[in-house]
Structure to design on (224 residues):
C-alpha cells in the first residue's frame, strides 16, 4: 500500500502464484527457491529512487523439542534467501531465490546478514548477503599467572555479492569475496561491521581478517 498526502494512493495484494511464475535465480544455480507464503522473516525493506520497492528476507522453519531439563524449546532453521522486487504501483516484477553457498549447522542456526545498495546511476542494485563457513572457537592461555585471551571466538562469515539489473529484472551469479583462485575462503568479515560505503557512494569497502586473525584484509568494490 502507498499513502500519499494523507490518502491511499493504491493498494495491491500479490497472489502466491505470481511468486512462482516470476521466480528467478542466478544463472548457475540449479534450484529456484521461491516465497510460498509460509514462515519468512523480513531483513530489509528498501524503496529505490523511482518508488519501486525491494523486500529481502529469509525463509525458515521451526521445530519444538525438549532440552536436557525437559523444557520445550523452539528450534529455528534458516533456509533460502528471497528478494522481492515490486514496481512503483506495488506489482511484483521479480522474486529472486537464493540457495546459500554453505548450509552447515551454523548457517542453519544463524540468520544471514543482508544489505542492498543501489548504484549511483540507479540502474542496478548490489545484493550482499553473508555466507557462514563455521566458527573459530578461540582459546585463552596463561601469561605471568593471569588468564589472557589469545584468540577470540569468531563467526567465520564472508560476503557474497550479486548484481541485479533493475530494468531487465535479472540477477548475476554471486561472487564470494575473500576467496582464493581455487575458491577456498581465506578471509572473513565481522557480520556486524562488514562493509563501509565511501563518502561519494561509489565504492564499497570490505574489512576482514584471515581465520587465525593475524592478517588484516581490505577489499574495494566499485559501485558500477
Amino acid at each position: 500500500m502507498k499513502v500519499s498526502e494523507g490518502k491511499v494512493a493504491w493498494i495491491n495484494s500479490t497472489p502466491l502464484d505470481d511468486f512462482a511464475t516470476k521466480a528467478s535465480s542466478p544463472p548457475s544455480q540449479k534450484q529456484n527457491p521461491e516465497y510460498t507464503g509460509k514462515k519468512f522473516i523480513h531483513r530489509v525493506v528498501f524503496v529505490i529512487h523511482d518508488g519501486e520497492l525491494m523486500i529481502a528476507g529469509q525463509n525458515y522453519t521451526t521445530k519444538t523439542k525438549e532440552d536436557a531439563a525437559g523444557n520445550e524449546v523452539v528450534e529455528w532453521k534458516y533456509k533460502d534467501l528471497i528478494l522481492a522486487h515490486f514496481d512503483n504501483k506495488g506489482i511484483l516484477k521479480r522474486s529472486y531465490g537464493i540457495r546459500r553457498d554453505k548450509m552447515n549447522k551454523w548457517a542453519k542456526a544463524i540468520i544471514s546478514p543482508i544489505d542492498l545498495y543501489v548504484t549511483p546511476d540507479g540502474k542496478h542494485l548490489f545484493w550482499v548477503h553473508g555466507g557462514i563457513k563455521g566458527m573459530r572457537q578461540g582459546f585463552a592461555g596463561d601469561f605471568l599467572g593471569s588468564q589472557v585471551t589469545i584468540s577470540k571466538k569468531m563467526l567465520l562469515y564472508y560476503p557474497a555479492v550479486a548484481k541485479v539489473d533493475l530494468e531487465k529484472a535479472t540477477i548475476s551469479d554471486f561472487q564470494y569475496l575473500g576467496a582464493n583462485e581455487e575458491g577456498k575462503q581465506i578471509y572473513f568479515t565481522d557480520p556486524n561491521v562488514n562493509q563501509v560505503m565511501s563518502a561519494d557512494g561509489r565504492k564499497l569497502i570490505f574489512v576482514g581478517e584471515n581465520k587465525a586473525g593475524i592478517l588484516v584484509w581490505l577489499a574495494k568494490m566499485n559501485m558500477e
Summary: The longest helix spans residues 16-21. The first strand starts at residue 2 and ends at 4. The chain has a mean pLDDT of 89. Helices lie at 16-21, 105-109.
